[in-house]
């Protein structure tokens, strides 16, 4: 593979100077400049050729030939960069992917919200506790989670920590996914710690036995494909902090075009998708596959505007619309967007994020989501596509491999009164492993029925 994308951008980027929402206000601009210069000299985290490969995989998703599974933490944390946490997340995604591939008979494109998901847009600039008001926590890349004045000051050196945390995470992910751990013949091993304790684990075990039998049969017939020994796994995060993303944006010497080498795929969030803003301009200049989150107030003109700005060549795989409207709105709001986008001639990938439109605050003060609402939004998304004859291309979920109690419901039910037991997210509530597997089984059924 030709791997360049190494030359720093020399001219002033076109997105600098445009209004950029949700950026930290650094008190020390000299310190920021020094950090940016340091990052500009750092090696890329991913290669342009890998981004191109993911774009071609996303083209299959857009054309109805594959399904996207994108998942990981709401907010990665520096102190969670450990083999244990990374393995648990990966294991959950591999199990979900095995369920979807086998039970829905569809190739699954696997993308983690991982190795860079350290920055959070917030609804409010400040947080008040017991009469004390401080700047909101905006992710480990910006400030500290701890509720004290010093922690909450935006610190640009955290950008360097984000780079190094992303780099070590990606290194381990590459080792796990290509070094034997993700070999399909390990399909039981991923479940070993889980099978006794969870109904989802037991259901998975049954499926793993069927996969084993199929593999045994293929081997007996003399086929033992190399594809089963490793998986293609890609990284993604929200391209929120433009100082960081710009510093990692490099010119690919094969083509002279720009790639954001901080991740294979980056997305623009619901709060920063202004058509005349810096984030969309940034996304329009890079060649990575791009996601755009679409909330319930997205207009047809906006959706068509994203296509014109980001996908002028109408290239399948370039643009993914990640719909996060809420279970109560998706059936009303999505059809018109899908119809008009399809009529425009663009082939985008449609993906559901059933998390962000279904958050509420429990009486205990915990931000949570009901598993049933998550499922209902996915169902609504599938219904809309079935009605229009278009392809429900995938799911984008906040999940963890840990046994947390952050979302209520699921087969191994979490109740509102359980939330305090293991509520560990730094921002939004994630599905735990059991809920994630439940979701994979239910999505596989929906896909088959489609
Ligand atoms: O993860 C997404 C956003 O950062 C999050 O939903 C914003 O949450 P807030 O409304 O608590 O700021
Ligand atoms: C902030 C996020 O989502 P949204 O932009 O859809 O609110 C997210 O996915 O982390």
TrEMBL record:
- Cofactor note as given: Binds 1 divalent cation per subunit. The enzyme is active with manganese, cobalt or cadmium ions.
> Transferase: present as a keyword of the record?
yes
CC cofactor:
Mn(2+); Co(2+); Cd(2+)
Q: In which pathway does it act?
A: Metabolic intermediate biosynthesis; chorismate biosynthesis; chorismate from D-erythrose 4-phosphate and phosphoenolpyruvate: step 1/7
Which InterPro entries does the entry mention?
Aldolase_TIM (IPR013785), DAHP_synth_2 (IPR002480)
Task: For this UniProt record, give its keywords in alphabetical order, as a comma-separated list.
Answer: Amino-acid biosynthesis, Aromatic amino acid biosynthesis, Cadmium, Cobalt, Manganese, Transferase
List residues binding phosphoenolpyruvate.
Answer: 113, 270-271, 293, 324
One molecular function GO term is: 3-deoxy-7-phosphoheptulonate synthase activity
List the GO biological process terms. Answer: amino acid biosynthetic process; aromatic amino acid family biosynthetic process
Family designation? Belongs to the class-II DAHP synthase family.
The name of this protein is Phospho-2-dehydro-3-deoxyheptonate aldolase
């Amino acid at each position: 593979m030709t791997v360049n994308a190494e030359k720093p951008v020399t001219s002033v980027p076109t997105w600098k100077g445009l209004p950029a929402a949700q950026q930290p206000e650094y008190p020390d601009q000299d310190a920021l400049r020094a950090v940016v210069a340091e990052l500009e000299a750092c090696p890329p985290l991913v290669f342009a050729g890998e981004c191109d490969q993911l774009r071609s995989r996303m083209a299959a998703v857009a054309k109805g030939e594959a399904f996207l599974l994108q998942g990981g933490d709401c907010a990665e944390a520096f102190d969670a960069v450990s083999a244990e946490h990374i393995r648990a997340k990966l294991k959950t995604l591999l199990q979900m992917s095995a369920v979807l591939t086998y039970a829905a008979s569809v190739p699954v494109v696997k993308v983690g919200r991982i190795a860079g998901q350290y920055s959070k847009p917030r609804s409010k600039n400040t947080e008040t506790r017991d009469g004390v008001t401080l700047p909101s926590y905006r992710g480990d890349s910006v400030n500290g989670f701890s509720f004290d004045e010093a922690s909450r000051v935006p610190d640009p050196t955290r950008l360097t920590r984000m780079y190094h945390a992303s780099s070590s995470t990606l290194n381990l992910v590459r080792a796990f996914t290509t070094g034997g751990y993700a070999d399909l013949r390990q399909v039981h091993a991923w479940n070993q710690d889980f099978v006794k304790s969870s109904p989802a684990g037991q259901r998975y075990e049954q499926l793993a036995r069927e996969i084993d039998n199929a593999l045994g049969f293929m081997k007996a017939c003399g086929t033992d494909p190399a594809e089963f020994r490793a998986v293609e796994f890609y990284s993604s995060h929200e391209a929120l902090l433009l100082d960081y993303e710009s510093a990692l944006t490099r010119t690919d010497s094969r083509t002279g075009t720009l790639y954001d080498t901080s991740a294979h795929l980056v997305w623009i969030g619901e709060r920063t998708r202004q058509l005349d803003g810096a984030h969309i301009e940034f996304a329009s200049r890079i060649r990575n596959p791009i996601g755009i989150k679409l909330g319930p107030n997205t207009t047809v003109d906006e959706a068509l505007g994203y296509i014109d700005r980001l996908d002028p060549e109408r290239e399948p795989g370039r643009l993914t619309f990640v719909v996060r409207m809420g279970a109560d709105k998706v059936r009303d709001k999505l059809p018109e967007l899908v119809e008009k986008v399809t009529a425009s001639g663009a082939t985008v990938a449609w993906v559901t994020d059933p998390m962000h439109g279904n958050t509420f605050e429990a009486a205990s003060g915990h931000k949570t989501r009901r598993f049933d609402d998550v499922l209902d939004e996915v169902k609504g998304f599938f219904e809309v596509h079935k009605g229009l004859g278009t392809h429900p291309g995938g799911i984008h979920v906040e999940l963890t491999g840990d046994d947390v109690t952050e979302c209520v419901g699921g087969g191994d039910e979490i109740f509102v009164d359980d939330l305090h037991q293991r509520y560990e997210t730094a921002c939004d509530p994630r599905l735990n492993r059991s809920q994630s597997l439940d979701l994979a089984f239910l999505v596989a059924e929906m896909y088959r029925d489609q």
